[in-house]
Design goal:
heterodimer; A: five-stranded parallel beta sheet; 12 strands; elongated; B: alpha/beta; six-stranded parallel beta sheet; 22 helices; globular
């Protein structure tokens, strides 16, 4: 039976709700993703994650009517992270027949949420979900669900005569435990290895759209996520999809959440590194094309077997279908 | 034979003897073939030196490692091809110098020891203090000298649980100046309400006040019995490379109070060892009181097993020809330079006034064999070395060249205790404390930059606006604890609040903008006096680094364990306990105990300079990976059963619950243990580790899982 699912989020949330909405449509359901606002206009993320997203801020009346109508008819309203009181009031006034699902993407005690928002929403939430990365440790009773990557898995193993090509998307310094992804040491190591011609570092200096970044990733052998917090992020999933060796500092519990979400019997083939070991990890890879190729193949196999969007979306469909 | 130990003393009061027995036992449990060659009661040291080569030839093969202490150069006659391992236990010559700086050095004896060190296959030390004191006072050491801890003696039998100690503070060991007996007498004088005892020999030491009991301690069983009767052990020695007394105390789950320049202070800190700055009796007194006041866990076995493994691993590596140093030994952050400590060693206030002749006669009556043995040595050395004073009678006084008692100098790093003189920032200082903000019933919550302090030790106090006296009293009493600098009045930030009791935490958080959340995040420990749960929760949400301690003077409990990291309830009717649902939850009977309790909790949960790994679940087995474990990368270690598949789960809670039966062993760093002690205790009692793992993961602790 086809479901009608409305996704609502305060911002595009790096396209996570949008991808889920699109995956639902590809699976034969009707879904609309609405974000109240895009990222700030003068920021690097503005306009980059709205491909599958309808922005409500400054929307025309036709768009607002579309959203109103969809919300009224929706079977499920899937709320991401938080909504302002005005939006909650709007939902109540619509008196939708929909069941509410809440999904959290962010940690506690740091931005953007700081504390558990679901109880304060004032809506009858039927199911609480959490992104199955590091976040379940803050919401241990929420159902862990995967973030989706909609691309087809790809593999271009490194040849023996190829230098190691590494894609690194820099992040800026932030405070907090899980938001503090920036590593000055990592950047120094990468610059040094690049200057010594040990590895080729692909280091985008300007913000790129997700599709362009993914295309660039497919030309590389290695994707470096962050090596500070013990988590993995969307970069790691995209790296697996692109057949890259994925380097991060994800701990056992983060990786286990991915495996649980994907119903996979094994942990993802991430290569563990932190500030103390990143240099050695990269040099080892640089010196061994064969090992790089093997790890790339493992990434590809894992994504292909367990993380395809058309497979993972069924988890959401099952959740929606079993709501009370 | 894989390993031979040589004990040139063979006395129950000797640390080398205790070490040899413990080391032998430990290495046998590792599966090695070990033997100890011990000096016989009536045997002269020279006779042992001559006997040793035959014994080694009989027992050892070329690959056997022969370990001996440096002192007395007992290995002098061993052939050059012996695989010799010299273990630094502290030379007698250094001990003699400590007791009498004016006595001429026995250069020949020192040279003999240095010769053995020079020709040894390997040299190791049990502490940095041992290494440094040897290099500074006796001679150089090979660059390849390694450092690894002594093993802990295995308790046999353990005291029955719940046994009621009838001694507060125990001194165990030889009653002599080198062991700091005068400091103990002074300590007892300062703490007349505490029950002191001395366990040494079988006769009461002359001059021991009647207020101090004497226990016999001539056999290992008697020593163990004395330890089981006490609540803590005082170790006021002038110097120790380690202290087998401390290790014995830990093996009986007894904490130790000691000067923090002793080698044993590099092994672990509070609550196992309370380190006082050298020669400061006020420090020693406070540490003793603090240790007695704290409700300590009753089983130190995870600590002793951890030290044991480190020792075993180091010896195994040595046998394999790849010696390595332990990374666990670090001097306390506030430990002064050893040279300065020894230079400022005071004259002791209670000298042994017994005349030399009286002491010799006493020795003749108590131990005729030792008397004749040592007298023969003295005469022999006197014939061989004219002018050398060969006998080593205990000196009555220790005098410094600088005159009367002087305080130890300020240590170069770390929290420095000082007298509580307020700093001159008069405008922002309210006596006591530094006011940085007020949380009103409406409007944005704004605070100023918290009072300066060492990272990890910035403390703030939150109190109700209409009850300032409560905060003032607490700060004054905390500030009076001079041995803990972070609680000085000029280092405690103060915030008052006056809010609507019905205001929600969401509303409060929304009143704190990003900048003020970051300012709140600069506080490391927030102590909250009778604060509403919503405000406690709101402030805690501002930063993942912030640790909050809720004090409830009315005995009430906060709604949930995520409202604060720790809570202290004052409830005269409740039993002192630590329930298992909170990370730390302490109930005390009266407000009198509050300052010490608060200080103890802050100290225990603050940063640790020595953050060792402690096992709390599983059977102790040798694990090489433990040696290289870096608690800066991971704060815990989980070993799963082999072949255990990943448990399927839909939530983290389900995953952890399914994982727990697959856990073979669980280790946490000491700092994690102290932060989550209320959750660790049930695991040590046989419970499941799910609650602890969930709490740790929630707070950002990383586990290495294999």
């Amino acid at each position: 039976m086809s479901l009608k699912v409305l996704h609502l989020s305060p911002t595009p949330l790096v396209a996570a709700p949008g991808k889920l909405s699109r995956a639902l449509r590809q699976a034969g359901h009707d879904s609309l993703c609405v974000a109240l606002n895009d990222y700030p206009k003068n920021g690097p993320l503005h306009g980059k994650f709205i491909d599958d997203v309808t922005l409500l801020a400054e929307a025309s009346s036709e768009v607002k009517d579309l959203v109103d109508g969809f919300a009224r008819a929706a079977d499920v309203i899937h709320i991401h992270n938080d909504l302002p009181a005005s939006t909650v009031q709007w939902l109540r006034e619509l008196s939708p027949r929909a069941r509410f699902v809440y999904q959290v993407h962010s940690p506690l005690r740091e931005g953007p949420l700081y504390f558990e928002r679901a109880p304060a929403l004032g809506l009858p939430i039927s199911r609480h979900l959490v992104v199955g990365q590091y976040q379940p440790r803050h919401y241990p009773d929420y159902l862990a669900v995967p973030n989706l990557v909609l691309d087809e898995p790809f593999l271009a193993p490194r040849r023996d005569d190829e230098p190691l090509r590494v894609l690194f998307s820099p992040t800026h310094s932030r405070t907090g435990r899980w938001n503090a992804k920036y590593s000055e040491r990592l950047e120094k190591v990468l610059r040094t290895l690049h200057d010594l011609r040990r590895v080729e570092i692909v280091w985008p200096t300007a913000p790129l759209s997700p599709s362009t970044l993914m295309a660039l990733r497919r030309t590389c052998h290695v994707s470096i996520d962050e090596i500070m917090t013990g988590a993995f992020h969307q970069v790691s999933i995209e790296g697996l999809c692109a057949g890259n060796v994925v380097i991060n500092r994800a701990d056992f519990f983060s990786k286990s959440m991915m495996a649980c979400c994907a119903r996979a019997p094994e942990l993802p083939p991430f290569v563990h590194a932190d500030e103390g070991s990143i240099e050695d990890v990269l040099i080892d890879l640089a010196l061994s094309p064969r090992r790089t190729a093997e790890l790339q193949a493992a990434s590809f196999r894992y994504f292909d077997a367990h993380l395809r969007a058309d497979r993972l979306v069924n988890r959401f469909v099952h959740i929606y279908e079993t709501l009370h | 034979m894989d390993y031979l130990l040589v004990d040139p003393f063979g006395q129950v009061t000797s640390g080398v003897t205790s070490y040899s027995i413990a080391a032998c036992d430990s290495l046998r449990r590792l599966g090695l073939k070990v033997a100890v060659i011990t000096r016989r009661p009536d045997e002269h040291i020279e006779d042992l030196r001559r006997r040793l080569p035959d014994e080694v030839a009989r027992l050892a093969c070329p690959a056997t490692l022969v370990e001996a202490p440096e002192t007395l150069a007992v290995t002098r006659d061993l052939p050059a091809d012996t695989r010799l391992h010299i273990r630094l236990h502290g030379s007698r010559h250094f001990g003699a110098w400590l007791q009498d700086r004016r006595r001429p050095r026995d250069e020949a004896g020192i040279a003999a020891e240095q010769h053995e060190i020079g020709r040894a296959h390997h040299v190791s030390a049990p502490s940095l203090a041992a290494l440094r004191s040897h290099v500074a006072h006796l001679g150089p050491l090979p660059p390849s000298t390694t450092i690894h801890p002594h093993p802990c003696p295995q308790p046999d039998p353990l005291a029955p649980p719940g046994s009621n100690p009838d001694i507060d503070a125990l001194f165990l060991g030889r009653w002599q100046n080198l062991k700091g007996h005068s400091f103990l007498l002074e300590l007892q004088r300062r703490l007349p309400h505490r029950r002191f005892a001395v366990a040494c020999g079988d006769e009461r030491p002359a001059g021991l006040p009647t207020s101090i009991r004497h226990l016999a301690a001539t056999t290992p069983a008697e020593r163990a019995a004395a330890l089981d009767r006490c609540r803590l052990v005082v170790l006021p020695s002038l110097f120790e490379t380690v202290s087998m007394v401390a290790l014995e105390a830990w093996s009986r789950s007894r904490p130790v109070v000691a000067w923090n320049h002793l080698g044993i202070a590099e092994y672990v800190g509070a609550p196992f060892l309370h380190g006082a700055r050298p020669w400061r009796m006020d420090d020693l007194e406070r540490c003793t009181e603090e240790a007695l006041e704290s409700g300590l866990c009753c089983d130190f076995s995870f600590l002793t097993r951890s030290l044991d493994w480190d020792f075993q691993q180091s010896i195994r590596a040595l046998i394999d020809g790849q010696p390595l140093s332990s990374t666990r030994l670090h001097p306390p952050a506030d430990c002064a330079d050893l040279a300065q400590v020894l230079d400022t060693m005071p004259a002791l206030p209670h000298p042994d006034t017994m005349h030399l002749f009286q002491r010799r006669m006493r020795k003749l009556l108590r131990n005729p064999a030792a008397y004749w043995r040592d007298s023969a040595l003295r005469r022999k050395l006197a014939r061989l070395q004219p002018g050398t004073v060969a006998a080593l009678p205990a000196r009555n006084d220790i005098e410094t060249p600088h005159g009367p008692l002087r305080e130890a100098p300020e240590p170069p790093h770390g929290p420095v205790a000082a007298l509580a003189h307020p700093t001159p920032d008069a405008q922002d200082i309210r006596k006591p404390g530094v006011v940085i903000g007020h949380i009103g019933p409406s409007g944005f919550i704004k605070i100023r930059t918290p009072a300066q302090g060492v990272e990890g030790w910035r403390i703030a106090l939150l109190h109700a606006h209409d009850r300032p006296e409560q905060a003032d009293t607490l700060i004054e009493r905390l500030s009076a604890l001079e041995d803990f600098a972070p609680t000085r009045a000029d280092r405690i930030s103060v915030i008052s609040f006056e809010i609507d009791a019905l205001e929600s935490s969401a509303s409060l958080i929304n009143r704190i903008d990003q900048k003020n959340k970051e300012l709140i995040g600069q506080i490391d420990h927030l102590v909250m006096l009778d604060t509403p749960a919503a405000l406690a929760r709101a402030l805690r949400c501002c930063s993942p680094r912030l640790r909050t301690l809720m004090i409830s003077t009315r005995g009430e409990s906060l709604p949930g364990p995520d409202d604060a990291d720790m809570q202290v309830r004052i409830d005269a009717t409740a039993q002192s306990s630590e329930p298992a649902s909170w990370r730390r939850d302490v109930t005390i009977a009266s407000e009198e105990r509050l300052p010490l309790t608060v200080m103890r909790l802050l100290r225990e949960t603050g940063p640790k300079s020595v953050d060792m790994l402690l096992q709390i679940l599983g059977e102790p087995v040798f694990d090489e990976a433990l040696h290289d474990f870096d608690t800066r990368r991971f704060q815990g270690l989980i070993r799963l059963l082999e072949g255990a598949p990943l448990p399927p789960a839909e939530t983290m809670h389900e995953f952890i619950a399914a994982l727990c039966p697959r856990i073979r062993s669980l280790y946490v760093s000491e700092s994690v243990y102290m932060r989550y002690r209320s959750l660790c205790a049930p695991i040590e009692a046989g419970g499941a580790p799910a609650a602890l793992i969930e709490a740790c993961l929630h707070d950002g602790v990383l586990f290495d899982v294999a």
